[in-house]
Amino acid sequence: MVSNELISEVFDHVQRHDAFGTGCPTGVDCLFALSKPNTTAYEATLYEPIMCLVLQGVKEAHLGEKHVRYGQGDSLIVSHTMPAISGVIQASAAKPYVSLAIRLDLALARSLYDEIGEPDVSAGDLQSMSVAKTDAGLVDAMTRLFRLSHNPVEVRALAPLVVKEIHFRLLRAQHGGMLRQLLLHDSPASRVSKAIARIRSDYNLQIPVAELAATAGMSQSTFHEHFKTVTSSTPLQYQKELRLLEAQRLLRAEAKPVSSVAFEVGYESPTQFSREYTRKFGVTPRQEKSSVTA
Q1: Among the listed ranges 42-51, 117-126, 251-260, which one has the minimum average pLDDT value?
Q2: Pseudo-torsion of CA 244, 246, 247, 253, nearest 10°?
Q3: Are residues 214 and 271 both part of a single domain?
Q4: Which of 84, 116, 151, 180 has the fewest CB atoms nearer than 10 Å to its CB?
Q5: Where do the HTH araC/xylS-type domain residues begin and end (predicted)?
């Protein structure tokens, strides 16, 4: 059960830092507070591996044809870097959307292998973006981590222990199946993760699927099947999504010509870039730049 006191504390933290609508840092590097006093339009975004505990309000994310909705008391686990479309669908000034998010550390999770025991990596109901009601132990651990984040001495002494506890609890959670797969270096989830890392590092290059399959240590047909299971998209579509999201970031943050942004993210044709950007975001790259500078 999420306490009203915790909701107020997290909201006040975001308000003090004037960070509504963004991930507001805390005294713990991997922990962020989020709040939004109104609903939002659906926007394309890039989810990093995280766990998000919703304290109030409701948010929805679309990953390909899959839709996940998470509200008060739910926790969302994202196991891989995922391009998605998301928005806050329930929030108001009186009851804003409030959540806590922790960035996941795969190396830390794997260090818990001996404590977890042989993980259940059955293929059933494995999702890279999954939601379930949060058990009391995990809510308590997230509450303690947020509250100690205000005290630098406690952060140094206690935060690593609580972060480890949270990873332990997530690995044992009913919706932690994909995380449990990632404990095994040769599991399909881990192999796809290697290919995703390659795409992210070379997002502006045309990487043949054969090369990505080789990176994952799979045949092309097996790789394509597992990649689609994990990401709900094909490898080529995933590469395109990353390019367009990076282009959006550049257009909003830097005073570069549209053609320069197109070439920087790997497009050889500015015309093709403009067409695909407009199809993805509903505005042209030039309109995107204008909306930021207006």
Answers
A1: 117-126
A2: 150
A3: no
A4: 151
A5: 193-291
